[in-house]
Amino acid sequence: MGWEQIEISLPNCSSLQVISFPVVQLHLNRTAMRASQKDFENAMNQVKLLKKDPGNEAKLKLYALYKQATEGPCNMPKPGVFDLINKAKWDAWNALGSLPKETARQNYVDLVSSLSSSLESSSQVEPGTDRKSTGYETLMVTSEDGITKIMLNRPTKKNALNVEMYHEIMHALKAASKDDSAITVLTGNGDYYSSGNDLTNFTDIPPGGVEEKAKNGAILLREFVGCFIDFPKPLIAMVNGPAVGISVTLLGLFDAVYASDRATFHTPFSHLGQSPEGCSSYTFPKIMSPAKAIEMLVFGKKLTAGEACAQGLVTEVFPDSTFQKEVWTRLKAFAKLPPNAMRISKEIIRNREKEKLHAVNAEECSVLQGRWLSDECMNAVVNFLSRKSKL
Ligand SMILES: CCCCC/C=C/C(=O)SCCNC(=O)CCNC(=O)[C@H](O)C(C)(C)COP(=O)(O)OP(=O)(O)OC[C@H]1O[C@@H](n2cnc3c(N)ncnc32)[C@H](O)[C@@H]1OP(=O)(O)O
C-alpha cells in the first residue's frame, strides 16, 4: 500500500478533466435540485458512519467538495512537493475551480449517498454473517484447550496495525473476556510479531482535515489501550519475531511475555517525531529503571530478546526452533488451573494500578495527538511512505 496507493490516487484527484467532469455533469442534471444545509449536515454525519473505508480517492473528493461547499474556491497557497498528503488535498480542492458552493454541497450529498449504498451492498454479499462475530479480516481468533488465541494476521505487512485491526483486536479482547477460556494469548502470524502502527493510517484524511484525523486517532488509541488495561483474565504475549512501536509498549500491560530468540524490541518514537503510548511512559521506567526506559523510548535503542528479558520486559526467551512447542505446552498447563482463582489473583495484583494506568493512557494520547500534527512526525511518515526511510 502506502506509496503505490498515493501514486494511484494522486493523478485521479489532481487532474482537472478527471475530477471536474462528473462534477459538471451533476451540476447540469441538478439545476432544479438543491441540497439544504440540513441535508449537507446529515451527509457529514453519514460519512462518519460508513462501515467500510471508501478509499483515498473518494475521501479526497469528499474533502474537496466539503471545502468548496463551506469555503468556496481554493485560495490557499499550494503545499510543497514533499507534503504529499496536503498537496493531494489541495489538488483535489483546486480542481473544482469556481464550482458554486450550492453545487458542491449537492455533489457532496450525492457522493455520500452513492458511497453509502455501494458500501452497504458490498457488505451484504454474505447475508446473515456478522463478520465481527464470526470472522475477522486482520486476525485469526481461535479458542481451544481453555486458551483463546488472537493472532495478528497481516503477515505481508509485518502485522502492522491498521485501523481495522485496532477495532478487531478490541472486539476480540472483549469477546475473550466473556468466553469460557481461562487465558488469552496474543501472537503474530509470519516472521514478525508486529511492526506497530500502520503508517498508512496517516494517509486517510477525513473532511475535517489533519486535526480531525489526530483527534480521532487519539480517541481510538485511548479506547484500544484501555481494553488491555481492563482485560480481566491472564493475558500472555507470544512474541514470535520482531516487535515495533505500540506492539512493544503494550507488553508492559501483559501478565507474561514469552519471546522467541529471533524477537527484537524497538520503540523508535523520536525517529518518528512521536512519543510513547501504551502506558509505557509509566510501565517501562517501573519495569526496567528510568534510564533504561529512556534508552528505549527516547533514544530508540532496539533490544534483543535476551536484553529485554534481562530488563524484565520479557518473562522468558526460547530458541526459535522450539518456541511454539515449548510455549504452547506451558500455556496448556496454565489453562488447566482454576480460572476464577487466576482471574481473582490477577485482579488483586493489577487493580490498584488501574486508575493510574487509565490516567497515564489519557495523558499519552493527548500528547500524541499534538505530535501527529508536528512537522517532525509528518516528515517521518512521508519519508517511510516514499521509501526514503525504514527503521
Ligand atoms: C492510532 C494509534 C496509533 C498508535 C501509535 C503507534 C505508534 C507506533 O507503533 S510507531 C512504530 C511504527 N512502525 C514503523 O515505523 C515501522 C515501519 N516499517 C519498517 O520500518 C519496515 O517495514 C520494517 C523494518 C518493519 C520491516 O522491513 P523489511 O523486512 O524490509 O520489510 P518491508 O519494509 O518490505 O515490509 C513489508 C511490507 O510491509 C509494509 N509495512 C511494514 N511495516 C509497516 C508499517 N508499520 N506501516 C505500514 N506498512 C508497513 C511495508 O511497507 C511493505 O509493504 P509493501 O511494500 O507494500 O510490500
UniProtKB/TrEMBL annotation:
It comes from the Eukaryota. Pathway: Lipid metabolism; fatty acid beta-oxidation. Residues 36-121 form the ACB domain. It is found in: Mitochondrion; Peroxisome matrix. Its main location: mitochondrion. It is an enzyme of class 5 (isomerase). It catalyses: (3Z)-octenoyl-CoA = (2E)-octenoyl-CoA; (3E)-octenoyl-CoA = (2E)-octenoyl-CoA; (2E)-tetradecenoyl-CoA = (3Z)-tetradecenoyl-CoA; (3E)-tetradecenoyl-CoA = (2E)-tetradecenoyl-CoA. Its EC number is 5.3.3.8. Pfam families: ACBP, ECH_1. Keywords: Acetylation, Isomerase, Mitochondrion, Peroxisome, Phosphoprotein, Transit peptide. GO terms for molecular function: delta(3)-delta(2)-enoyl-CoA isomerase activity; fatty-acyl-CoA binding. CDD domains: crotonase-like. Coiled coil: none annotated. Able to isomerize both 3-cis and 3-trans double bonds into the 2-trans form in a range of enoyl-CoA species. Has a preference for 3-trans substrates. In the C-terminal section; belongs to the enoyl-CoA hydratase/isomerase family. This is Enoyl-CoA delta isomerase 2. It comes from Rhinopithecus roxellana. The gene is ECI2.
